[in-house]
Write a structure and sequence with these properties.
The chain is of the alpha/beta class. It is built from 22 helices and 14 strands. It is 40% helix and 8% strand. Helix 9 packs across helix 14, helix 11 crosses helix 17 and helix 17 packs antiparallel against helix 20.
């Protein structure tokens, strides 16, 4: 499969999504594309982006600069995009690389880079991209003559052009639907096809009574909870749930803190149930098939011991290290790809749930993923609330617009939002407590030690359940590993200190800080929706106190364990 890197402004999110789908539909693997800078230390995050992007430039077969019109300048090329273009050109010239280099259009004379880029075009080092016109192309998309207009609404899907037209002169028309936003294939009667598609998407079932095999891992309690999230469960989702790559998630813990006496959870909350919950929330508020599938598969790359593997990968503060494999797992699944092809959906449209603000957004916003694990972990693990309270909070949720004009889940009533926010803060504190940090880093060190001694492979983390791996740890034959894990299972407390404790298992790892300050709907339609911290002084003080709390530098257990170093 050919690999391609897409370059351009990270502000052009809709255009970038379009070009990703376009090239993926033509058989390319998209290695990288422009993304907004994540929240956090700007210098640190930008350094990560640069390193990753330029590493992908070294390993790509093709480079495409989407120099769309911007800032009233035709063919605009920013300084970062110019640096990336220059890097690939020089690699071809000086290092015998053979990367195909394309730009969307020749930059106007208003551009400072016009002369240089024009020279490269004249030498044949780069080319203006010419869209193939054959009708056998795999893509359902077509090249826009102009950049699509920026929209603050939830993305909808375009109707593809009629097969009698090989090159339209504008983006396909966006067709809103009350019930879905399904991609409509080429047809002699596209309106009828749309109606038929909507009808199939509207079929529902009662999850509390459904006996389908793919839903068997769900407990009675989990089904009752999921029915609150979406009383009319969409039947089309069942085949996507049934795929083996998703079914294995029923044995993956949401917290990875189930395996010692530190916690005595009354229930088990799986990534399987969580992911279905996220999908149902997205479906309820968007009725968009692509966004719902992105929510369903957002954790499909999670291995056994989920976030402990993020700790093992040195990603304890963002906990997203395994997400990069989401697209690969989807593309490697024949069943998923067959279903997507049937529904005329590109893998790139469901492989990154960060594209859809109802599914995911930046802290401290409320999105389906953050809402679901807050509700379900509070219900099944920490007993923060019961089913009646879950319904009380959830029935008050609606879609609002945040400070940037982007859709975001929020509350209709301030008093309900205040209660939810106040109750959720202690729940979030559990995720970065000394107990959680010690537990996750210890399991990470145990798994790393098993890998270092060749008792496990990375593939085993995707084929074995957590219970099976624990059995393997306890019977591996290495007393250092097995005895340490037995001590961990028996432990009932952790120590916390600002100084390192000798002859004990000790870590100073930092954890991800999670919290939510939801939007509240404005009383007057002409006013903007506002954060609860902007309208409630008690909640603002509670959130500040939560964020200002300083954890102990060191935490660990009162037994000795020195992890094995990975082989170099």
């Amino acid at each position: 499969m050919k690999k391609i890197v897409i370059s351009g402004s990270s502000k052009l999110t809709e255009q970038c999504a379009y070009w990703r789908g376009y090239f993926e539909g033509r058989g390319y693997e998209i290695l990288d594309w422009p993304k907004p800078v994540p929240e956090g230390d700007y210098a640190v995050e930008m350094t990560k982006i640069y390193r990753r992007f330029y590493r992908h430039l070294d390993n790509t077969n093709a480079f495409f600069l989407m120099n769309e019109d911007q800032n009233d300048i035709p063919g605009y090329i920013g300084s970062s995009a110019m640096s990336e273009l220059s890097y690939v050109v020089m690699n071809n010239l000086n290092h015998d690389k053979h990367v195909e280099i394309f730009i969307l259009q020749e930059p106007s004379e208003q551009q400072s880079h016009n002369t240089e880029v024009k020279f490269w075009l004249e030498q044949g080092w780069i080319k203006v991209y010419e869209k193939p016109t054959d009708r056998k192309s795999k893509s359902n998309s077509t090249k826009p003559a102009t950049a699509p207009a920026k929209s603050s609404t939830i993305p909808t899907t375009a109707i593809t052009p009629s097969p009698t037209s090989t090159e339209p002169t504008s983006l396909p028309t966006l067709v809103p639907s009350a019930n879905s936003a399904t991609t409509i294939s080429t047809s002699t009667n596209p309106i009828q096809k749309l109606l038929n598609s909507n009808k199939s998407l509207d079929k529902t079932l009662d999850i509390t009574t459904c006996r389908k095999k793919c839903l068997r891992p769900l407990t009675v309690e989990a089904r009752e909870y999921l029915r609150i999230l979406c009383p009319d469960f969409p039947t089309w989702l069942l085949k996507y749930i049934a795929v083996p790559e998703f079914q294995r998630l029923h044995s993956v813990s949401m917290t990875t803190m189930d395996y010692s006496n530190l916690y005595k959870f009354p229930d088990f909350n799986s990534v399987f149930a969580h992911s279905i919950g996220v999908a149902l929330i997205v479906w309820k508020f968007t009725h968009d098939q692509k966004q719902t599938l992105a929510g369903l598969y957002h954790d499909i790359a999670s291995s056994a011991f989920k976030h402990a593997i993020d700790y093992m990968n040195g990603d304890s503060e963002t906990q997203e290290s395994t997400e990069a494999n989401t697209g690969q797992i989807i593309r490697n699944s024949k069943t998923i790809m067959r279903l997507l092809k049937r529904d005329e959906i590109l893998p790139s449209e469901v492989a990154d749930y960060h594209l859809y603000p109802i599914a995911d957004n930046n802290l401290p916003g409320l999105a389906a993923d953050r809402l679901e694990y807050t509700l379900s972990n509070g219900l099944f693990l920490y007993e923060t609330w019961d089913l009646a309270q879950v319904r009380y909070f959830y029935d008050n949720i609606t879609v609002l617009k945040n400070e940037d004009g982007i859709p975001e889940l929020g509350f209709l009533d301030q008093d309900v939002c205040e209660e939810f926010t106040e109750l959720s803060l202690p729940l979030f504190a559990n995720y970065h407590s000394d107990e959680a940090r010690a537990t996750l880093q210890f399991i990470a060190d145990i798994i790393q030690s098993m890998l270092a001694k060749n008792f496990l492979t990375i593939d085993d983390l995707y084929s074995m359940s957590e219970r099976e791996i624990i059995d393997w740890i306890l019977s591996c034959g290495d007393k250092t590993i097995s005895e340490a894990f037995r001590n961990f299972q028996r432990t009932t407390s952790v120590y916390s200190s600002n100084t390192i404790k000798k002859d004990r298992y000790c870590t100073d790892v930092k954890a991800k800080i999670r919290y939510i300050t939801p939007l509240v709907k404005a009383e007057d339609e002409d006013d903007e929706d506002r954060r609860i911290t902007d309208i409630s002084n008690p909640i603002a003080r509670a959130v500040k106190k939560y964020l200002d709390a300083k954890p102990a530098k060191y935490t660990g257990f009162d037994f000795e364990f020195t992890p094995y170093e990975p082989e170099s």
